[in-house]
Amino acid sequence: MSRLRGTVTKIVGTSSEVQTPRGAYRCDLRARLFRRSKVRLAVGDEVLLEERVAPGEDGTPGRGVIEELCPRRTVLRRTRDFKRDQVLCANLDQVVLVVAVLDPPYKRSFMDRVLVGVERDGLAAVVVFNKRDLADEEYLEVIEEDAGVYAGLGYRVLLVSAREGTGLEELREVFHGKVSAVVGPSGVGKSTLLNAVQPGLRLRTGEVSAQDGRGRHTTTAAELVRLDGGGYVVDTPGLRGFGLWDLGPEEVAAGFREIAALRGACRFADCRHRAEPDCAVRAAVEAGEVDSERFESYLRLLEDSEARAAERQAARRR
Ligand SMILES: Nc1nc2c(ncn2[C@@H]2O[C@H](COP(=O)(O)OP(=O)(O)O)[C@@H](O)[C@H]2O)c(=O)[nH]1
Ligand SMILES: [Mg+2]
Ligand SMILES: [Zn+2]
Fold this sequence. Notes:
This protein is an alpha/beta fold. It has 3 domains: about 5-70, CATH 2.40.50.140; about 85-240, P-loop containing nucleotide triphosphate hydrolases (Rossmann fold, 3-Layer(aba) Sandwich), CATH 3.40.50; about 245-315, Ribonucleotide Reductase Protein R1, domain 1 (Orthogonal Bundle). The protein has helices at about 30-35, 110-120, 135-150, 170-175, 190-195, 250-255, 255-260, 280-285, 290-315, and strands spanning about 5-10, 15-20, 25-30, 45-55, 60-70, 75-80, 85-90, 95-100, 125-130, 155-160, 180-185, 225, 230-235. Mean pLDDT is about 90; it is low at about 210-220.
């Protein structure tokens, strides 16, 4: 019997929903497979399933059994205190970081923190500045300069307006055929943008939720939303999923592309680019080759990271 390849979009108890070229299937994970691999399925997993009942003409899902789990290209984990890491999403391709030019204005240090987490997880990042309509000519120049910094580092950068519908074609193209997570502060227009990309989606907008940074779905698992244009969006696992508050000092240095590129160029191999003599990174900042705001972000994240490491060490000694 032929096997169908599909993507796990939702998990409810021991049953999962799998999207295949022939339609959606409700599936049980074959017990043998589950015991052998000891792997827990996650949304985004690519699986091979055996069809039991074909999907209905009316769109009712078919039934199947998952026979095989394909190797994961990437995993997005959530680290939990006192518990094993949880895989929030498998095979995530990219993180789409959304910020607003105003209301609320973006903070570069926040953006850099997210980007460092994305680099650590080996994912691609796309930076979207939304609410372009709120910026006047003069302010637009500032934004374009900031956007240029990220574009210069090799990130894809979009300046869009969900309200005016500008840049949406390009955003659709970004999502096309990929598994994406949309992250960013509350109120920047993430839901509005997704609704604009896919009108049938009807995500609620405008609520300023204090929980947004953590995500609404902290207890239940994430879900993949299929886009008509091809591709999936993770119903946001929130920034927690990126373990951004748990970056080691080396991960911080490695997560800044322009700093990582200078590895080995400082006099000391373990240079942290603060006050050490003959530091190639600081020289590059002074020469204007490394953006000074990025460097400030680096120092800030490094400090955070070192403070956390010290805290952990103190806790271990206790
Ligand atoms: N002016 C302007 N407002 C926007 C734009 N996109 C979203 N908004 C507004 O920003 C608010 C927050 O949007 P929402 O999508 O809920 O943000 P989320 O928290 O990131 O999902 C809503 O009142 C939206 O109408 C835009 O491009 N321009
Ligand atoms: Mg929202
Ligand atoms: Zn250095």
